[in-house]
Specification:
single chain, 218 residues, alpha/beta, five-stranded parallel beta sheet
């Protein structure tokens, strides 16, 4: 797994790089100290995963994430790193297609787990702060009062599966909750992603809150 670390603090950047390099199957192919020019670094190093600091002095992690995910072909997956557990930039980054985010003070094993999870094509939904952040955003006055037109093409079962995904449940947990085979749940998740033109489960969670299917605290 090829990883690029982007952070404006040299000690954090070096620490993350050293930690990841010590893991089997992970190679740090480069580092950058700002979002400025990060597309060129990505193009040159071809990482599978980018660890992206959200707050940087010249080009912030949100704009850098948008630029990376707009690259032609199959762009790397982005994990947002932040010191804040309630940061509007993070929600915007998830909407832009980032695969999740972690607090910088997360345990080392959580960081390496995150890299492995997103490198394999999954979204990082396990940290409870991700769901708390989205719920906080959805609870604001501009949150929709009812599900919008984007969801009209989904069946009742697909809507129920989407609610369970938004609650942070795994496929196995959803299968147990809805009394379905796990493969059936995977099929429903795949169909939802296709119908709504979503990249992964993280974007599905965002869409569930943003569209009004799930409301904060429910």
């Amino acid at each position: 797994m090829r990883v690029l670390v982007v952070d404006d603090q040299s000690m954090i950047r070096a620490g993350f790089a050293a930690l990841l390099e010590a893991q089997d199957g992970i190679t740090v192919v480069g580092t950058a100290d700002d979002g400025l020019g990060v597309v060129d670094v990505v193009r040159r190093t071809q990482p599978d995963v980018v660890l992206m600091d959200i707050r940087m002095p010249k080009v912030n992690g949100l704009d850098a994430t948008r630029a990376i995910l707009a690259m032609p072909g199959v762009p790397p997956r982005v994990i947002i790193l932040t010191t804040f557990d309630a940061d509007e930039y993070v929600f915007s980054a998830l909407r832009a297609g980032a695969s999740g985010f972690l607090l910088k003070d997360s345990p080392a094993e959580e960081l390496t787990h995150a890299v492995r999870v997103v490198a394999e094509g999954e979204a990082l939904l396990s940290p409870k702060v991700t769901r708390a952040l989205i719920a906080d955003y959805a609870a604001r006055p501009n949150a929709p009062a009812a599900p919008d037109a984007r969801l009209r093409g989904l069946t009742e079962r697909e809507l129920e599966v989407m609610r369970q995904v938004a609650a942070g449940l795994s496929n196995a947990e959803i299968a147990a909750e809805l009394v379905l085979a796990e493969q059936t749940v995977k099929t429903h998740v795949s169909r939802i992603l296709t119908k709504l033109d979503l990249r992964d489960r993280t974007q599905m969670v965002v869409c569930a809150y943003e569209s009004g299917l799930v409301r904060a605290g429910r």
